Amino acid sequence: MRGYLFLFLFICSVGASFGQVYKITYHAIHNDQVILTDPVIVFANKYKTVITRESIMNNKFKQTAEQSIIDIPSKLIYRKSTFQNRKSIYSVDSSAFNRTNFSDTKDFKTILGKKAQKSTTSINSNSIEIYYTTELPIHAAPNDVGLNKGWVMEYRRNGNSGYVATKIEEIKDFPSDYLLPSKAEVLDILTYRDEVWKSKFIQIPIFKNEKICFDPDNLKSDSILRFAAGTVILKKIKVPALLNESQAFIELVEKSNGDAYDRTGSVFFIADDQPMTFLDGMKNGMNTLPRYDVGDGKDYLGMIRTGGYSPIFELMRFFTPFGVSHFNDRLALKGKTWQDSVTYRQDISEFLGVMAGKEIYVGTYIGNYDKGGHIVSLEMTIHPGNSNYAEQTNALSLFNTTNVMEMGGQTYPTLFGSAQGLDFEFELKEDVKNARLRYITTGHGGWWNGDEFVPKVNSIYLNNELKFQFTPWRVDCGSYRLYNPVSGNFDSGLSSSDLSRSNWCPGTITYPNYISLGNLKAGTYKIKVHIPQGPPERDSQSFWNVSGALLFEN
């Protein structure tokens, strides 16, 4: 009888040990300094481990919170992500538990009174060191790395950052909300990752597979407005009021739907800070907008800021490649696979100050004369934190000579061929700080001797004082050959898309220049852009598409 009693007590003792739940607190370390904020909290026994954070347990997280629940016997790691609306989703990783191979060393240290052995590995070119122990029958770590070794008490990446266990407690049981999910709750890993990624920022869809083409007989408008014989599309969107330091991006995906040529494109939004807007000209005729006259017999409509009118804000200047997607089967080359589309993505955070909390009209223009034209999708994304721009950054649209309403009455901007060029006044109604001109410029036309293929100096003046001078030129166009399936080919072995150009290449974005103007007092200012535009050549003429927005802080 005494033997049975001893066996019963032994089994109960072992069971209690194996079932004991431990709560482990890890603090981040950086350059051997312990960081006390928001520690990692791990719950573990022989059968299960939970990796979470103090902020998640206290329901104080502001962004998507990811936790891990590990089923130790099956070596399955369940990912649990909880969004700001407190919805949770799950996925499972069957390989992470044993994914990393470690090499034990002969180094030991004592952590929380326990002897821990050093083990090393490399992950994504990062040197990883852990100190682990097997003195307790648990598999625990501040992340997934080293779970198969036992209890990871310290984790370091590249020697200078990581986590260290600072406290261990024995508790009665796991918190109630860390149960393993049912099979019905578990998403496949790609769906899970996609939902987690998208939960971290705001998506504002604008266009989805919309056609931009020259088709004046089929100008149907619904939520998408179409102008200039179909070469301009426009939509009103609502930009939410935002947290401080947000970042904004636009992403455009383009493919040919029949047009084989490289075309000028622009993504823009309509400034509405004055009584007359660009939309008035789109609806009522461009001749209703202010004219800029340089004495060459042409009217340059809606291109400069006046006392009652603001030109459009240009978000992105882009150039379509030669026939990407639609013409991919026209020319097969050994060792080359044509791209299916081109994606343009650009940071536009500097404009959040004039967009946030408003309804705005966003448009896309591609100059072309083809009924098939181009297919585009456009979205804006807004991401919290880490902005490079001051919270109070504001903007005024000063000029935009890109003739986005080319088929609706805006002439090509050949105005730089005159002695006057671009030269006008604008008014600041109050003092501003840290003023910068966001300047985009590209040269076009004129065949071989025209400004598309001849470098030309751009000079920008404020009140007749030279503020910036440079020669816009791109020499990397050959990098985008695989986006240009029907680019013209020459006997020299070059393709037209390879050729260097005045600040653009087929299939690329033209980046803005940011020109410092300093602190400016309220008053009237004169701005001048000078470019030595070349003369017409045969049936072609040179011209320059330039846009300028004044960025500043109040």
TrEMBL record:
Residues 203-382 form the Peptide-N-glycosidase F N-terminal domain. Coiled coil: none annotated. InterPro entries: Cu2_ascorb_mOase-like_C, PHM/PNGase_F_dom_sf, PngaseF_C, PngaseF_N, PngaseF_N_sf. It holds the Pfam family N-glycanase_C. Keywords: Disulfide bond. Transmembrane segments: none annotated. It comes from the Bacteria. This is Peptide-N-glycosidase.
